[in-house]
């Protein structure tokens, strides 16, 4: 039981961030424009910060910067 809680403690933040990114990726262009977020600069900055947060969450889970960067890149390609 302690092992499961330890794994959840490490990986749950990364899983939540991945779920959040995945859910935002389903938002269509017209919905983004209606929300006033149709500017490309906002998209680029938003992607940068969300994937930076994901990379930190992976680092927290793995303790290895190379692994966290690699996992973030792999998630970005999916």
Which helices and strands occur, and which strands form pairs?
Blueprint: H1 2-24, H2 29-34, H3 40-62, H4 65-77
Provide keyphrases for this structure.
83% helix, 78 residues, single chain, mainly alpha
Explain how this protein is built.
It is a single chain. The chain is mostly helical and 78 residues long. The protein has helices spanning 2-24, 29-34, 40-62, 65-77. Helix 1 (2-24) packs antiparallel against helix 3.
* Number of helices, where a helix is a run of at least 4 consecutive DSSP H or I residues: 4
The percentage helix is over 70%
Principal-axis shape: elongated
Mean pLDDT: 90
Structural class: mainly alpha
End-to-end Cα distance: 32 Å
What is the percentage of strand-forming residues? under 5%
Radius of gyration using CA atoms only: 15 Å
Number of strands: 0
Helix-strand string: HHHH
- Major sheet, described briefly? none
Report the uncertain regions: none
